[in-house]
């Protein structure tokens, strides 16, 4: 499960650069596309919160100052939360490009 979470987090970081290499600008554009017909603030906050979680916990990087994720239930929760956001993003990107 930890490996799966690490890999999906890598995908999240990559999708944030879908439109350009500047993560912030690309993420802002992605948030606009994803939130169309919904609430931009909710989607934006989700991106920010998940980014913060990734920077706080030992998910992709294993620095000693990061918090350990030891409970499998938390790992599963984060995996599916991130999977849902990536699924939404890829579907909205595909809709937007067609």
Question: TL;DR of this structure?
Answer:
The protein is mainly α and 98 residues long. 71% of the residues lie in helices and 0% in strands. It has helices spanning 2-15, 23-35, 40-56, 72-97.
Can you put this structure into words, describing what you see?
α1 (2-15) runs parallel beside α4 (72-97) and α2 (23-35) packs across α4. The longest helix has 26 residues, at 72-97. The model has no long low-confidence stretch (mean pLDDT 93). Helices cover 71% and strands 0% of the residues. The N and C termini lie far apart (34 Å). By secondary structure, the protein is mainly alpha-helical. It contains 4 helices and no strands.
Keywords:
mainly alpha; about 100 residues; 4 helices; globular
Secondary-structure-derived class: mainly alpha
Instruction: Using the alpha-carbon principal axes, give the shape.
Output: globular
The H/E string reads HHHH
What kind of sheet is the major sheet?
Answer: none
């Amino acid at each position: 499960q930890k490996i799966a979470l690490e890999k999906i987090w890598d995908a999240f970081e990559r999708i944030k650069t879908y439109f350009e290499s500047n993560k912030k600008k690309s993420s802002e554009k992605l948030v606009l596309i994803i939130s169309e017909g919904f609430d931009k603030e909710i989607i934006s906050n989700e991106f920010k919160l998940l980014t913060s979680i990734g920077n706080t916990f030992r998910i992709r990087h294993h620095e000693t100052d990061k918090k350990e994720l030891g409970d499998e239930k938390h790992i599963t929760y984060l995996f599916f939360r991130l999977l849902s956001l990536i699924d939404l993003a890829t579907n909205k990107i595909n809709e937007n490009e067609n």
